[in-house]
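Notebook B, p. 112. Complex prediction, attempt 2.
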Amino acid sequence: MTDHILEMRDITKTFPGVKALQDVTLEVERGEIHAICGENGAGKSTLMKVLSGVYPFGTYEGDIVFEGEHAKFHSINDSEAKGIVIIHQELALIPFLSVAENIFLGNERRGRGGLVDWNKTNVEAAKLLERVGLHENPTTPVGLLGVGKQQLIEIAKALSKEVKLLILDEPTAALNDQDSAHLLGLLRQLKEHGITSIMISHKLNEIADIADSTTIIRDGRTIETIDMRDPGSTQDRIIKGMVGRDLEHRYPERTPQIGEEVLRVEDWTVHHPTQVGRVMVDNASFNVRAGEVVGIAGLMGAGRTELAMSIFGHSYGRDISGRVYKNGEEVKTHTVADCIANGIAYATEDRKTYGLNLIEDVKRNISAAGLHKLSSRGWVNGNEELKVAEEYRSSLNIKTPHVLVPAGKLSGGNQQKVVLSKWIYTDPDVLILDEPTRGIDVGAKYEIYTIINRLVAEGKAVIVISSELPELLGICDRIYTLAFGRITGQVPVAEATQEKLMELMTKEKEQVR
Amino acid sequence: MSVVASIKELFTTNLQRSGIYLAFVAIVVFFAVRTNGLSLGPENLTNLVLQYSYILILAIGMVMVIIAGHIDLSVGSVVALVGAVSAIFVVRQGQPWWVGMIAGLIVGALIGAWQGFWVAYVGIPAFIVTLAGMLLFRGLTGLVLNNLSLGPFNKPYTLIASGFSNGLLGGNGYDVFTLVVFAIVAVAYAWSQWRARKARLAYNQSVQPLALLVLQVVVVSAIIMWFAWQISHDRGLPVVLIILAVLIIAYTLVTQKSVFGRHVYALGGNKTAAALSGVKVRRINFGVMLNMGVLAGVAGLVFSARSNAAQPGAGNMFELDAIAACFIGGAAVTGGVGTVPGAMVGGLIMAVMSNGMQLLGMETSPQQVVKGLVLLLAVAFDVWNKRRSGAVR
């Protein structure tokens, strides 16, 4: 019988209205590197939060057996005490503190009288840095180091806690090839020292390279666990497992009537706003025609939102280069006002943070981007504004008793309709919709698709960014795939399959010919 | 949709929205009883207007700063510096009153632009910029005044703070002109309420029952006319009340009906969403700080005229009274929430309390204790009320 360090049995986790995990089973052998694969929203991160005690014992159903004991973690401290350490995708280091201070944060090396023993701290930190192969002074502030090195410091921090099971969430998503290779080498080395790792990753060739077994999660359920030493365990098999669901939502019918090109973007390159030299969008070119719905498919971190936001008023990134053509003529998109004037609209992902003023009423949210149409000499016509808001409330079927309700009180689907109203009212020729249906129910999704169809029927061009492949296949005419900041393919919907798209979405640099 | 809202709905929503007005009424009644009506007498009401007008003027600008998500700690020092500059022109150089006033307003605008530059274009938090300004402008006041009081102003200058328009239409122990002006105000109020109701009906919005509207108009008009009757028995209509009324009406319109005002709310409510909707964030931030500077200039002129001198220590702690007025009046520290009328009621609550406690012969120290507690409890009540009504966030 194999020696399992961890068994998670029939884990079910329910959020109000959503079953995030359903009877998920995960068995991890001692001393292996175990990969977890799945689409965005499949439940991988939720599962890891259950395991590490972020969702405490009692808020989920099922059993966790760690090292032969039933684990009842009430907080992250409980799981760390047992030797489970999770390293999140967003690194949790404090940039102004030194490497050594970060490593021992919350776990300080103390000397006499409970004061921090700095010699001990720095000497032990240096030893840990040696173990992870990082040649830096322990007193250097973390903020001066690159992401790759920061990732290694996180691992050193985990080692300082006597880690037995190390969980890494997308550890290489932000790293370049060299740093990734180093990190993967380190994981192998830790394995030789008996440390078990669980790695969540979208990079299938890395998984094929390093993992001993892979568990695939889809729609909150375990699909299968594959032994990677088995020759049949190819990347194709993983892809099939990740996407192999039936189209569960229906999409409204539409006969495409595609006209002239409306928007073309050429050689668009964007750098990270704070990390110097990190390229977020690399030489992207694409176009969209009147009456066409174009999809942009990409996994988390592929640069989808960065691409859209950098075009829309240069709202993201620095050192932006490239050209935008509207109806064949080059246009400026340096400010949001430029874009609105040129008939380009962008409905953001995460409507609560970027799209809406939640404390303001529906009416004022709808008019926010188009106030210039409602005002003369700087004074807003309040009655006209109310009329416009009421028109959108009925035409987009926004469910609210009246338009003076704060936007924050609406459901997700209705909030999304408010965001769409706001942008449709600016009278755009091109609408970029970033994750327009994330977190909303099936009925509201159908309504959003219907609105998209109505827009293209009016001759507008629509770009939909989504991580749900069936959605893109259901509503688009053409789909671009984005991987690690590069456009890796362009597929007419008739030729597209989920497997084909997923392959292009996980394609790395050296594979791009 | 029910066109006429139900009484219950009206009661609950109005209670949430008008808790502050009820508190104001309660405080007024409390002090009226304790002082045997003295606090509502003609002389005291007039004094109340003269004494607290400059705080209210500051609160108008401050509430916009707070809605935009900032704070301004420097207004007290700006009041002092504006008064000082104005006094140098009028008192030391003997220039006409209006030269001093224009110079004072220009100084206010320049200070506003200076602070707006640092806040909006350099991106330093307003707390820091105006904390620096508080020291800077207080210090400059001392320098230009050589740390000495400078006065008195000439007669026309002092009229803006302590002048009265009276006797224009004669009267028997009361000023008919004051009564006529207030009657016009009451009629204008009734007419605007009626028009708003008609517009809402035309757009098929829910309105309150007609009887309730009539009741509201009658009650408000009665209060207006009673106030007019009282002050007409004293010295008539204070000039500063006219200035204050014009500012309140103008800025209520600006905040509620202008594109600029709407952008201020959008910015304070969600800066990112506002920027992504085409709001020119820097320009709005600059405008809000500039405006605060100008209004601090107006307050500085009124205060120097009332003191009949420019003093190095003028306006000390005014910023705190103005900020307290905004928060008592329902503004949120996080920005995006607040109204000019709310801030005015907040300011009046502070004014009525200070004045009432003075009438009762309380010393300054216990007065401060009470004011501090009222500020804390008012905001706590607001937080509790929002949580109870299940508001967002």
